[in-house]
């Protein structure tokens, strides 16, 4: 079993810089049109998690979540967080000046951290 | 060859470009408080062509100041007066149709044949529709009893915040601004980060047409000014079009201030072709083939992109063959050429996302029937974000069938019968649009009613006339635009409960 979410070195470096500058951040995998299908990076706690959101895992010490319905149709793939050229187009924090986070994917069997525990934003069981 | 428009800013172009654009606040151009600007890139050649304000929360406050200063006078303007302003906006757009069409094409990359024939004319009509609709909107009275009457008035919300996407910058601005103003509100509008400029060109035209402060436009990053606007306790409503997570974020922000929001979010719209479309080789079949190829309209950057084609098994080979032949004749290139059918994606980010999806499609076993790669053009277009019109064949559980790719990428599969078509159409998280193609009216009606989507195009696709309500089922959003009912979303109801009886209640 592979982890449900991993990160490239470029993404890990970007996360480390962001955390050093602003403190902890979190990721939520977006769906739908426009800037959708991209990971959105928030200051930790900026995005209110729901009771049914799924914690996919951690990247660079930061939690990575996805909508439970979207998880159902994505769960046969591993998400690989990476960095791309260009400013983010929506509400995501930039990965760096002029750069944004992007997801690449790999088809494989993955294990996931589980649903978040009620109201805590933390996993119901350890990853 | 069609007519080729000169690129904005170059000698001979019908569109002028300033080196730098400030925010449009209170009818004036106002420099961003912190003095920061950002380069604005044309996707046609990947090069910056002007700068726009990189605004901060301070600029949002300035825009809100201007809007609040204007709101009482605008909200108190007679219906005829408000309608006259909306009609003047429409006339101004119409008088500058070609200029705005070229600006929009250069800004977003969409083919000018689309902006000339769809985006700008639809924006013009949208203002005219709401100029009329607001005058036709009536309050109600209820005679509670012989001496007691309940009067219901639609009152403006005051100042509203509106955040729009990059795919139809001017048309989405029209969809947002027209009902807000018609209902008597002032607006602070934030264009999408990749496409701020064409709306600023519109603002240039509106100076003097719209009272100062009624429309304010501020540009900058969503994480900063989008958030500052959506969380502001000084707005009465937030309107948003974009993707699903941000939609949730917008509703979260609105909850902080207990204000309403409307959200138009993503889709993964099925386009269903029943076998009888091939019963005759006629104009209708030709229309159905075009109906499938419409996935490439606006480079697939449409929330309702018909990006899942479901084709009845018995006609698949023949029908798809005809469609692929049509797709192979799509002309991709400079969107300022009226012969061009497919321009560049709006940004490097979108191009990269599309490529990542084609990659996952291949890993999942989808078969690429045509395209599948970045299209590297020559000369000035070499750095543009062009992607070949692409068709992937697979099954509905693949991610390319479940997620909006927002590019000219069609996922196609087959179904056996009506029941399977319906099950597959509804096997999606989204419910924004759908298409049904058949010569059988009863079948079309049954499918149209059973598909869980806010808009089911029947024997047509991608029509967006004012007067046809547009909005999502499921996680595709809340609210209905493009219709008089949007006025309800931009007003609040005042009830005057009046007693005409002199008699006391008798309790005390």
Concise summary:
By secondary structure, chain A is an alpha/beta fold. In chain A, 17% of the residues lie in helices and 38% in strands.
Task: Give a topology summary.
The complex is a heterodimer of chains A (127) and B (508).
Chain A: E1 2-3, E2 5-7, H1 9-22, E3 25-29, E4 39-43, E5 54-59, E6 62-66, H2 68-74, E7 77-85, E8 99-107, E9 110-111, E10 114-115
Parallel strand pairs in A: 1-9, 2-7, 3-6
Antiparallel strand pairs in A: 3-4, 5-6, 5-10, 7-8
Chain B: E1 20-21, E2 23-25, E3 28-30, E4 37-42, E5 47-53, H1 57-75, H2 79-95, H3 97-108, H4 112-136, E6 140-145, E7 148-156, E8 159-163, H5 169-182, E9 186-190, H6 197-206, E10 215-217, H7 222-230, E11 237-241, H8 244-257, E12 261-264, E13 270-273, H9 283-293, E14 308-312, H10 316-328, H11 348-363, E15 367-370, E16 390-393, H12 399-402, E17 409-415, H13 418-426, E18 430-431, E19 433-437, H14 441-450, E20 455-458, E21 473-474, E22 477-478, H15 486-489, E23 491-499
Parallel strand pairs in B: 1-5, 8-9, 8-11, 9-10, 11-12, 13-14, 13-19, 14-17, 16-17, 19-20
Antiparallel strand pairs in B: 2-3, 4-5, 6-7, 7-23, 12-22, 15-16, 18-21
Helix pairs in contact in B: 1-7, 2-4, 3-4, 3-6, 4-5, 9-10
């Amino acid at each position: 079993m592979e982890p449900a979410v991993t990160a490239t070195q470029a993404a890990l470096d970007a996360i480390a810089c962001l955390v050093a500058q602003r403190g902890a951040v979190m990721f939520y995998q977006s769906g739908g049109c426009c800037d959708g299908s991209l990971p959105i990076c928030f200051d930790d706690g900026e995005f209110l998690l729901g009771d049914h959101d799924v914690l996919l895992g951690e990247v660079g010490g930061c939690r990575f979540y996805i909508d439970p319905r979207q998880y159902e149709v994505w769960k046969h793939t591993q998400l690989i967080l990476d960095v791309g050229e260009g400013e983010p187009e929506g509400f995501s924090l930039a990965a760096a000046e002029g750069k944004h986070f992007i997801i690449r994917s790999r088809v494989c069997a993955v294990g996931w951290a589980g649903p978040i525990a009620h109201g805590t934003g933390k996993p119901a069981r350890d990853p | 060859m069609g007519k080729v428009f000169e690129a904005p800013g170059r000698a001979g172009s019908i569109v002028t470009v300033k080196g730098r654009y400030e925010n449009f606040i209170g009818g004036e151009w106002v420099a961003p408080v912190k003095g920061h600007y950002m380069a604005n890139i044309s996707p046609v050649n990947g090069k910056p062509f002007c700068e726009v304000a990189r605004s901060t929360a301070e600029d949002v406050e300035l825009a809100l100041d201007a809007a609040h200063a204007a709101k009482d006078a605008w909200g108190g303007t007679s219906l005829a007066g408000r309608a006259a302003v909306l009609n003047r906006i429409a006339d101004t757009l119409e008088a500058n149709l070609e200029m705005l069409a070229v600006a929009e094409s250069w800004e977003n990359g969409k083919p000018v044949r689309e902006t000339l024939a769809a985006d700008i004319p639809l924006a013009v009509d949208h203002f005219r529709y709401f100029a009329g609709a607001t005058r036709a909107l009536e309050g109600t009275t209820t005679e509670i009893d012989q001496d007691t009457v309940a009067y219901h008035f639609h009152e403006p919300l005051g100042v509203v915040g509106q955040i729009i996407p990059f795919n139809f910058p001017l048309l989405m601005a029209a969809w947002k601004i027209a009902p807000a103003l018609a209902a008597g509100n002032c607006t602070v509008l934030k264009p999408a980060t990749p496409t701020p400029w064409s709306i600023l060109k519109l603002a240039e035209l509106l100076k003097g047409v719209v009272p100062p402060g009624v429309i304010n436009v501020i540009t900058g990053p969503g994480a900063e000014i989008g958030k500052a606007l959506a969380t502001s306790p000084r707005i009465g409503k937030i309107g948003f079009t974009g993707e699903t997570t941000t939609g949730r974020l917008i509703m979260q922000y609105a909850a902080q201030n207990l204000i309403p929001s409307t959200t138009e979010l993503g889709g993964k719209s099925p386009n269903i072709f029943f076998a009888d479309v091939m019963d005759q080789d006629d104009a209708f079949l030709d229309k159905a083939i075009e109906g499938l190829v419409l996935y490439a309209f606006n480079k697939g950057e449409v929330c309702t992109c018909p990006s899942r084609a479901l084709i009845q098994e018995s006609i698949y080979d023949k029908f798809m063959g005809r469609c692929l032949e049509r797709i192979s004749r799509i002309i991709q290139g400079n969107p300022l050429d009226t012969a061009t059918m497919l321009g560049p994606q709006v940004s490097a980010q979108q191009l990269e996302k599309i490529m990542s999806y084609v990659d996952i499609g291949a890993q999942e076993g989808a078969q690429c029937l045509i395209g599948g790669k970045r299209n590297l053009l020559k000369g000035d277009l070499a750095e543009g974000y062009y992607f070949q019109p692409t068709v992937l064949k697979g099954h509905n559980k693949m991610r390319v069938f479940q997620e909006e790719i927002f590019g000219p990428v069609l996922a196609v599969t087959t179904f056996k019968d009506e029941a399977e078509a319906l099950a597959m159409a509804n096997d999606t998280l989204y419910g924004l649009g759908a298409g049904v193609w058949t010569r059988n009216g009863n079948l079309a009606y049954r499918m149209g009613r059973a598909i869980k989507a806010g808009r089911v195009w029947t024997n047509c696709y991608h029509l967006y006339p004012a007067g046809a309500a547009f909005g999502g089922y499921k996680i595709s959003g809340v609210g209905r635009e493009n219709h008089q009912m949007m006025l309800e979303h931009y007003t609040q109801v005042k009830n005057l409960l009046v007693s005409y009886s002199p008699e006391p209640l008798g309790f005390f």
